[in-house]
Amino acid sequence: MRLVLFGPQGAGKGTQALNISQKYSIPAISTGDIFRWAIKGGTSLGRQVQEYVDEGELVPDALTIKVITERLGAADVQGGFLLDGFPRTMEQAKALDGVLRERGTELDGALVIEVPEEVSLRRLLGRLSCSQCGRNYHVDLPPTVDWTCDTCGGQVVKRVDDVQEEKIRHRLELYHQQTEPLKAYYKERALLRQVEGQGTPEEVFDRVRAAL
Ligand code: AP5
Ligand code: MG
């Protein structure tokens, strides 16, 4: 199964990506995680993307497309994948179609999880994330041991782009301007699956499964 997953910030993409990856045995690839790991590791990619990520701006298309094209060449994605947070612009969506076409494959579905803006804000302002594996927590539902990931033992932190409400609102604005138009793009090709993102993570996952 080859899937893309998008939706406003805080919709629960990362949370559901983990569930989908386990249920369907496909790797979940998050461009946000790739960029944060590169920044943490001080790599050349990290230096190129840090300012965009910290400020909540989109990383330029050419660089993002290059990163995903390379990642899609790896052995573990040949049987399927879930892209969390890519594509995020029309240019990225068209580039992905081109890469898949060249490899003789195509997408099986485009899942969008949607929540109202107040829910996005509440979730992101309370979010805690593992800096090692990317697993998400919330101040209301923290890891069992403070600041330590239940899954990998990594350090749980607050993401820099989750601290200021203004920056979160700016990311949401970019979503509506640049990413939301992808709904029409995928709907036209009968790939779009829309899921309501409110409710418990388990309730949302039931809807995701039904949609897939
Ligand atoms: P990215 O890491 O993708 O961040 P984002 O789009 O801002 O989305 P989030 O990760 O904030 O939200 P989410 O939907 O994953 O929510 P989550 O599951 O964590 O991107 C970061 C940056 O990288 C971008 O700003 C940009 O700079 C760059 N970038 C990445 N991809 C790019 C691209 N393609 N092109 C250009 N630039 C790119 O859930 C949020 C919180 O809510 C958590 O605390 C979670 O525990 C909680 N929660 C989840 N589900 C529920 C539920 N059902 N009920 C209650 N709480 C819940
Ligand atoms: Mg995420």
Gist of the model:
The protein has 212 residues and is an alpha/beta fold.
Write a structural description.
- The chain has 212 residues and is of the alpha/beta class.
- Helices cover 48% and strands 15% of the residues.
- The chain has helices at residues 13-24, 31-41, 44-55, 61-71, 90-102, 117-126, 165-179, 182-188, 201-211, and strands at 2-6, 28-30, 81-84, 109-114, 127-130, 136-138, 156-157, 192-196.
- Strands 2-3-1-4-8 form a five-stranded parallel β-sheet, sandwiched between helices. A three-stranded antiparallel β-sheet has the order 6-5-7.
- Strand 5 and strand 6 form a beta hairpin.
- Helix 6 packs across helix 7.
- The chain is globular, with a radius of gyration of 16 Å.
- It binds BIS(adenosine)-5'-pentaphosphate and magnesium ion (MG).
